[in-house]
Amino acid sequence: MRFDGVHYLRWAKEHQGRARYSLTCSNMRPVTLAELGLGLDDVAIASGDPDGYGPLKAVAAEQFGVAPEEVFIGAGATGCNFVAFAAALDEADGGPGHVLCETPGYTCLDDAVRPFGAAVETFTRTYDSGFAIDCDDLRRRLRPDTRLVVVTNLHNPSGAALRPAELAELAAIAETHGCRVVVDEVYKDFVAESANPMARRYGGRMTSVTGLSKVYGLSGLRVGLLFADAAFVRRCYRIVDYLAGSNSVPGDAIAAAALRRRDWLVERARRIAAPALAHVRAHVEADDLLEWAEPPAGIIAFPRIRRPLNTLVLADFLEREYDLGVTPGDLFGLPGHVRLGFGLASPEDLEEALRRFRDGIRSMPE
Ligand SMILES: Cc1ncc(COP(=O)(O)O)c(C=O)c1O
After folding, report:
1. pTM listed for this prediction
2. Cβ(252) – ligand 1 distance below 6 Å
């Protein structure tokens, strides 16, 4: 195996906390134990369950409409993705083969696939299509040894939602080609399930990954959930035997309590996100140097700047001169854009950050 680095995450960790006004982070404002109606004495320390904390599996199964044996609990969505890639690309099962990832995309996913030795190629979600998936193009890129297709929904960086028709097409590809499709759904619950169904609903090798970091405001818990067929979930737990052995029980116990209040948490998230997105929309529409594919909901957006600027240099310039953090599109594979994350800032800070952004993209020297 080769670990050449998860480049986006390195950049994000190095830049974390540097700017007073930060639009780099894609998390949601944190929830407290008190808001969940929990005291520390309510949190389990020990568990007798060998593969995944039983109460969390049970509530996740109930909330997401799957069977408990279709639930894998991992260390954040990050941990779930890594374990899913290990399970899907296992040499004992004919792997690692070929993997298709989206671009622009959350490149941590591509980077997490590479250590398993798979040949990673990308397919493009274009700005002009509103970052939709062109399934005909995707089909043309499949190889006989393609074992895995990885996408995000909502799309990171643009926030675009997959339409049910796109998901149905992905399921058809998984079925006819015999490959697994992993859909990272960490931002999905900002949008109603009826408009934006989870990938696992389509059965077969369709696999959903989600977590409590984004919509649920519990990024410090490091709890992620994967929903797949029971055989695949068993493989995932066999892989965890090589890692931490199991998740933290207190973390999983808090996650279980949080999911019992899922409706409230989702409502809270949408209540915080909607005015922030409206604020960003008003800003983008009023600024003739910006254009975007407007996301339907959520806490990230990916405007394009109508000036020929190097966006990596721009991000450094804004940090240095404007005390403002934004993430360059280059880290998602699309220079010329920046990703704005607005789930953490107070309304006043968001206003000030956007004001600085408007000034900064004008004053940066070419
Ligand atoms: C698409 C996507 N997946 C996963 C993650 C990480 O989630 P977690 O904190 O649950 O590991 C992020 C964080 O930015 C993300 O954008």
Report:
1. 0.97
2. no
